[in-house]
Write a structure and sequence with these properties.
Layout: E1 2-6, H1 11-16, E2 21-24, E3 36-41, E4 49-65, E5 75-77, H2 86-93, H3 99-109, E6 115-123
């Protein structure tokens, strides 16, 4: 079983089923389709709590491009994959109110990083 930790702001969208994905940097091992996931808030803290369990349904490579000076050049690269609603649709599926909200979160948590390459991990209903 693979575990992922989330900030408090994502607990409600995960419970509601509106957030069924997470974007993560490369690491030694991510979940694989068919494996069980454990979703936590505050992992490795004394306030750790299990949000829920689910099954991984897809893991795909993702590149996200941010450019405050030229928003037209911003985008998401997901080979062979798309999101209804483009950047806004992706942001909402990832638990944000909008693409602007996602960008603000990104800037606060990853200052100076304009290009991210990693993995998009998607899951089904919570068990």
């Amino acid at each position: 079983m693979v575990a992922y930790s989330f900030k408090q702001r994502f607990v409600a969208p995960i419970h509601a089923g509106t957030k069924r994905q997470t974007v993560r940097a490369d690491r030694k091992r991510h979940a694989r389709p068919g494996e069980q996931l454990q979703l936590y808030r505050g992992m490795r803290t004394k306030h750790c709590e299990l949000i829920g369990r689910s099954q991984c349904i897809e893991v795909v490579k993702i590149t996200i491009l941010f450019n405050d000076a030229d928003p037209e050049s911003e985008g998401i690269i997901l080979p062979g994959f798309g999101f209804p609603g483009g950047l806004e649709g992706f942001a909402i599926a990832d638990g944000f109110a909008s693409w602007v909200d996602l960008k603000q979160f990104w800037r606060e948590n990853h200052p100076g990083v304009d290009e991210f390459q990693g993995n998009l991990i998607m899951w089904g209903d919570l068990a």
